[in-house]
Amino acid sequence: xxxxxxxxxxxxxxxxxxxxxxxxxxxxxxxxxxxxxxxxxxxxxxxxxxxxxxxxxxxxxxxxxxxxxxxxxxxxxxxxxxxxxxxxxxxxxxxxxxxxxxxxxxxxxxxxxxxxxxxxxxxxxxxxxxxxxxxxxxxxxxxxxxxxxxxxxxxxxxxxxxxxxxxxxxxxxxxxxxxxxxxxxxxxxxxxxxxxxxxxxxxxxxxxxxxxxxxxxxxxxxxxxxxxxxxxxxxxxxxxxxxxxxxxxxxx
Length: 252
Ligand code: B12
Known about the structure:
Helix content: 40-55%
CATH topology of the largest domain: Rossmann fold
CATH architecture of the largest domain: 3-Layer(aba) Sandwich
Number of domains: 2
Strand content: 5-15%
Bound molecules: cobalamin
Order of helices and strands: HHHHHEHEHEHEHEHH
Shape: globular
């Protein structure tokens, strides 16, 4: 017998039961219908429709609002679903891809000022592919005029050190999410010191990447939110040392 209707074969019944998003009356996370569509597309990993809904949202909302109240809000729910064991890798990868597609559009809409404010290097730690936070940092830094040298994800410690020596940035940014990869951030700090280089090293992420961990090594400044990156970078350009920046942003 040939199967004519596949719709019931690929249904995740656990999702229907456990996620409000797979039910008919989806939980509303935004009062704004355009932003809600963005949120839904991220949660559902709907890479076919994300560009349309982001375009519609950008027609009436500021790019930073679409980023924070749409894309990031959707990712917050994905995080919950993953943490509760409802989402597996495939759903999470699709959701992340949808978010990255939307982020690129927000960046295009924001545009970049012609006059450069300073140079920033960003990267996601060696062994780590959780780069969504880093991509948001890139967009925000570029939107205020920083030249961003994006080293990408899973960047070896030595590659980061070499890039700092080559470009002499005002600020280095790092993102990590795994307990196994966050050590790379500390290793970068140690290697830079060995080379006699000191600069503000702003870090964010998840898991063990906390205020106490990041401030346990030289140069580390903890940023709980990407929106801090342009502020820290601006202060770095104005000449504040990493110690002064740590005092200002981390209170120690
Ligand atoms: C999305 C996600 C993925 C996606 C990543 C896609 C991508 N392109 O990034 C995929 C599906 C690929 C993935 C894979 C894996 N993941 Co994962 N993943 C997540 C999840 C659900 C959300 C993380 C996220 O993207 N958040 C949204 C972004 C925007 O937040 P963010 O990066 O933290 O950034 C914010 C701030 O931290 C800050 N920030 C970040 N960087 C910076 C930098 C500066 C300078 C500043 C100022 C601020 C700042 O600003 C942002 C907000 O504005 C978390 C769950 C959780 N609780 O966090 C697990 C989680 C991080 N993953 C986890 C694991 C274990 C894995 C895998 C090993 C799973 C596996 N078995 O294969 C692999 C890892 C592979 C690898 N080598 O890296 C664990 C890590 C546990 C640990 N502590 O070690 C978590 C915590 C889930 C869990 N509870 O088990 N994952």
